[in-house]
Model the fold of this input.
Amino acid sequence: MAWAGIPDSETNLERFRELKEMGINVNLSNYPSADAMQKALDLAQQVGIKMITSCPELKNDPEKTVKRFINHPALAGYFLRDEPVRKDFAELGEWARKIASADNKHFCFVNLISAINTTKTEALGTSSYAEYISTFSKEVPVQLLSFDFYPILTVGIHESWYDGLEVFSAEAKKLDKPFWAFALASSYNSLHPVPTLPALRLQLYSNLAYGAQGLEYWAYWMSVGLHCAPIGLDGRRTVVYDRIKTVNNEIQNLAGVFVGAKVLSVRHTGVVTPKGTSQLSSLPSAIRVFETEGNGAVVSILENGPNTFFMVVNRDLKNNLPMIILGDESLKRVLKDGSIVKASTYASTTEIEPGDIAIYLYPTKK
Done:
């Protein structure tokens, strides 16, 4: 999903085709009127993009507005709010229920605040980040959860990022709701560098390792104050556009791994593991030897129907991750183009590039 997607002033077929070409299939934009929203939905339909969208009429007269758009093929959901705190939940819940009473086919979308600190959450109005998520879910009837966290800094990776992912994915699992998570597609201050391919991969693949079912980019269209975005202030593509296009293509090739997958465990390797995470201490029976060197990796085990996937993400943005993996005859390797080969086709000693992944497959135990 592209957040802050095509602005109203640039709503035309060429721009929607450009968005689709980057590998985006959901656009989130606000519009100044229901008529402007109608125009965008019509164009999105032509190129095969879904819309999460809003306009003033959706708040002022939700039932009437929803009835106007309920049958539009390009509509995915209604955007209500970004980063609410506890005191906002009652109003959001009332608004979402009004929409749902007129349309139970499309979801209401609210993006939650990141977990910069999972225990000191007085500003959120709750005693913990877990309570913030669970209270929101109780009071606001949404079908999926979303949160943002922009962890790639000029000085390294934010120490609380994986802690926040641990809490959010655990709460989503308890609530039995899918969750979506962000990658930073722009540079909004001197603390955050222009997104590189390793930085994009690390954010997106880490989100997927923790079970994310939707991936979001902020922001698609550059605004005053941002240093960089896929589309610049002059309306031209920047270097970030092609980087995102590359990683989106990779992820779509691997959709069979992630779509609908159930996370069995997420662990980390390395001498020092990130705050809030657990050290990898056991291996599935199909893998006999597994070792990593360097700064370590995210190791996720994902069950998806007849297959279980062993996913390794290099947490380092600068250096390759040396890895040894040796499995039994059932172990296969999933290549970046989505094809599958016997793991023994490759040497047991290998490397994963910065922020990148290696994925292995073995039969799900019945």
Summary: The first helix runs from residue 13 to 21.
